[in-house]
Amino acid sequence: xxxxxxxPATTGQHESLLIDAAELVVSTQFxxxxxxxxKLRIGFDHANRLMDQLHVFEVVGPSDGSKARExxxxxxxxxxxxxxxxxxxxxxxxxxxxxDAEVITLAEYQVTADPAAATPAVHFTKPAAPxxxxxxxxxxxxxxxxxxTAQDDEDxxxxxxxxxxxxxxxxxxxxxxxxxxxxxxxxxxxxxxxxGMNALDWAQYTAWNTPRYIGQAPRGYFRLVRKWGxxxxxxxxxxxxxxxxxxxxxxGSPSGEAKAKALRDARLAxxxxxxxxYRMKSAIGAVGGGGALTGAVLLxxxxxxxxxALGALAIGSAAGRPLNSEGEPVAASxxxxxxxxxxxxRVLVEAQVVGKDRAEEIQIVDLPHKADRGVQCTVELxxxxxxxxxxxxxEKIASALGIKPSQLxxxxxxxxxxxxxxxxxxxxxxDPFKASRPSPLSKRxxxxxxxxxxxxxxxxxxxxxxxxxxxxxxxxxxxxxxSGKGVAISNINCAVSLDVRVNLRDxxxxxxxxxxxxxxxxxxxxxxxxxxxxxxxxxxxxxxxxRYEILxxxxxxxxxxxxxxxxxxxxxxxxxxxxxxxxxxxxxxxIVELLIHIASQGAGxxxxxxxxxxxxxxxxxxxxxxxxxxxxxxxxxxxxxxSNVILGDGKAGDGYDASKIDSALRGLGxxxxxxxxxxxxxxxxxxxxxxxxxxxxxxFRREAGRLPGQWNDPVEAHLTRxxxxxSAGGGVKGNGRLPAYQPxxxxxxxxxxxxxxxxxxxxxxxxxxxxxxxxxxxxxxxGAGGDGPDAGKPASWLPTTDVLLPGLADQGQNITREKxxxxxxxxxxNRAKRExxxxxxxxxxHDALLAAIDELVSDQx
Length: 861
Description:
Elements: E1 2-5, H1 12-28, H2 33-39, H3 44-56, H4 78-84, H5 87-93, E2 102-105, E3 110-112, E4 123-125, H6 137-142, H7 150-160, H8 185-208, H9 210-233, H10 236-249, H11 254-299, H12 302-319, H13 341-350, E5 363-371, E6 374-380, H14 387-392, H15 394-401, E7 408-412, E8 422-427, E9 455-460, E10 465-468, E11 475-478, H16 485-497, E12 502-508, E13 524-527, H17 530-554, H18 564-567, E14 570-576, H19 579-582, H20 588-601, E15 607-613, H21 623-626, E16 631-635, H22 640-647, E17 668-673, E18 676-682, H23 687-704, H24 714-723, H25 769-781, E19 797-799, H26 800-810, H27 817-824, E20 831-836, E21 839-845, H28 846-859
Parallel strand pairs: 1-2, 11-15, 11-16, 12-13, 12-14, 14-15
Antiparallel strand pairs: 3-4, 5-6, 6-8, 7-8, 9-10, 9-18, 16-17, 17-18, 19-21, 20-21
């Protein structure tokens, strides 16, 4: 049995470098690979190998990710360490004391390769035993073999060293000698790009501040003239005055007076000589400079004149800069910081990502360059500092850079060379989310495949479109009121209108008319009505089981695109405002359990959920439901706790805090998908664009026979059978307003349930049916009269103080504004201010009344 001692031999230049590395690590007591890379001016991989060899010599401990290694040797043990690392003594020390195995040092093995092969095959071969009394390891290898000649040695060297003088790696194989970053094509391009970006930035900054420079120039030339006068006089006037004062003091003392006069005369002579020299230098400079300037202006081209004018402006402006209290020029206002090696170090220190004492360990491994409408660089953080730590401090980093957080993207390095301590920093010059973008579907003239192409949902800071593929993603959209959830749902509904294979079940929990435009193609559409949602979800569970039976018969584990038509299309249940359903005192627990069931098992059968709520609380989105909603979009929230309910526990602390999103940017939020999490803003389809998209989708569906009523829908068939009403296409009225859910009762002698309609006496319902009945009369009394198209319709909006409260009082319902708000103001969309008799006053829409009636009737079960 032969054992290989894998401890590296240390000879020649390699030994010297290893000893230098050991001295650095022991003297500083800091086992950092980045420090070796910087101090020894070697590549990162080379530094890493040196650190591994120091581990073999028990100088440092084992590697622990990107953290610095533990140093095992004290500075006072350095001498004995170097003695141990001596080549000869180390070669003797590596042999175990007593063993039956033949031990061979790694240095005794030669690496050979076939130069003719495209990828050289590497072999380890043991040389012949060295002659007794041989020299060091390499001498023994040179003398190996019977009758080896110098020519044989040369042949071996040619085989071991390829053309170009490439170094031989002891780990196996030939590698190219690494070149410095600036010598590579990529490095040259990156530096050129960085120089160009800063030059452009300087030019823009200078052009913008030119009026200020022009204003400073006269003051600057005034200062220059004054400075010339000060230089002309210098200190001589004061010195002469002092000498004259000495003459007065010495009056009566002949010797003292003579000395003072001699001092005065000497200073006067010096002053005359200084003025003569100063005038001569000034005259020479003025004549020479003035002549050259006159000649250039008179004889030179316009470009020369412009250059001279700009130079004169620059001199005057520089001299005329404002002064601080100490008389020093005030520093010019800085431009926006560009990413660069020094700025990145400063920014990471200021943001408290890296301590000031470790700033020198920060390395720029990918020079700043243009990327995706911004500037990007890759940064190697010091050992023990992870990319996640930098991401969590993204807001502070943006502040240090002088930009908005939305202009900055910090993410893990996902390249092959990336690791936990390497981060990619991208910065935009302007806020990429400031302007909304129309939906890409507004110009689409053909059907959409939401399975492969996906739904164009939003755009990210770098400009790319985020598409949601309707395969296995259950989506939760949540945020405060007016944060843009409705716009996100609108993008989804517009997209599915163009895919004839998607059966949209649209449930409006707000009761407004926002979703009415989708009714003509919706397989199911209704508003509020928690009882009906229970029936729909029960039908979807039955449909899901039917689909799994088909897949089982076909021997398939889950839905594929080829099976979509065979199963009846994709089922998308979109609920816009979850709050009134999951918190309902009677139906809430049932709805939650049914949603959890569908979320956990529906994806494989093509039954998907898209849920939205403006109340991101655990009571609305229980943890068991949220756990199966892998797609989450957290828009602006009231606080970090609400953000964590949407995105997951601890996400706000990791830097993904939706409560810090600008309230003016509706539709902007942290979008978490299986591939990662990033800031994204939903597309904004204008009303006319939305109507046009849906109109095209309706035509596509009509041609394919997939409009409501054109195909057999098992879900709506179930709902009609158990409730007596169909919500296909929004029901009879087409606006999703249906009678409350009533279980069908069998007729006498019939075993099957038959649809029946139960009339409801609204005024008899508790707790506020009488108030709602009175409000119906008030809205109808103020409706349109005459013979116009709106004749007989109730008023669409009425003011609270001027009409609603007095109208209720006339019918014996004396209630307060607060009580009326509790009845009609469940959702923000129901409140509105409008013009009334020359004033802008608050009131409620007729939709608010209908929503309250639906909710009250549904509660009766």
